[in-house]
Amino acid sequence: MLRQNFLNRIPKFAQQLGFQKFSFSSSGFLLSGHNKWSKIKHKKAENDRSKSLRIGKLSQAIALAVRENGPNPCNNVRLAAYLEEAKKFSLTKAVIENAIKKGSGIGNKDAQTLNEVIYESMHPSGVGIIVETITDNRSRTAAFVKNVLRKHNASLSDVQYLFDKKGKLELNAPKEYTEDVFDKVVEDAIEAGADDIYEQKFESEDEKTEDEGDFVALTKTNNLSKATEYFRKKGYHITDASISYVPQPGNAVEPSEDHNEELQDLIEKLCDLDDVVDVYTNIKQRYMD
Q1: Model pTM?
Q2: Which of 24, 80, 118, 245, CA to CA, is 20 to 30 A from 158?
Q3: What is the C-alpha R_g of the chain?
């Protein structure tokens, strides 16, 4: 039944993406006027200048995930996602083990003071923003986040209804897939338990960030670990695996050029805050076009 349901959905989203069923005739997101948003979608709280900052945030996130749901990534989807990201940043075994011990309360009670706090905001451009933070001082974090929002004309507002919380995988297909690639990726996605699979089009490799893959698979959050393991065993290169707030297709927006600079600066300033882990927006993403 799952296979049949998935296949029945393919023509619908294939049409939305602009290609025939199982083909490569799709047009990419980066059409004229679109490329200015290629970096403003879900933005991890990181940049070239602050890799060490991201490592510190990951350590805190791992500790909190362990505190809330235990140290076994097989039973803790959030921990599994953070450990997957830790690999990309080459976190040492010692750093990861210390974070897990901290979350387990072994020799360190600091993790008991950590809390996840989510802030929701709306920008005048119509862009909804979700800010995920991990903090040991709610008042401090609230003051910093609200200050950044205020300076960029954004206000606190309920926006989660614009998003679905999903497991999200960015993938590159195995090198041996040289023909009928999308057909094979779809079949693998079905076996992995994905809800949807999308192809992304890039005009050149230079457009791709290190987190972006040729395909995006969306799955239920509790299936992320299983799907990640399945794709890895099949020989896929996984460029990113996360639990994400994904904009619902009907609620994704493309802001006007007038808001470009302010939105970019807003997201970067939020990501620069010590307590911020992730920032999500409902700006239309590449794979949605």
Answers
A1: 0.76
A2: 80
A3: 19
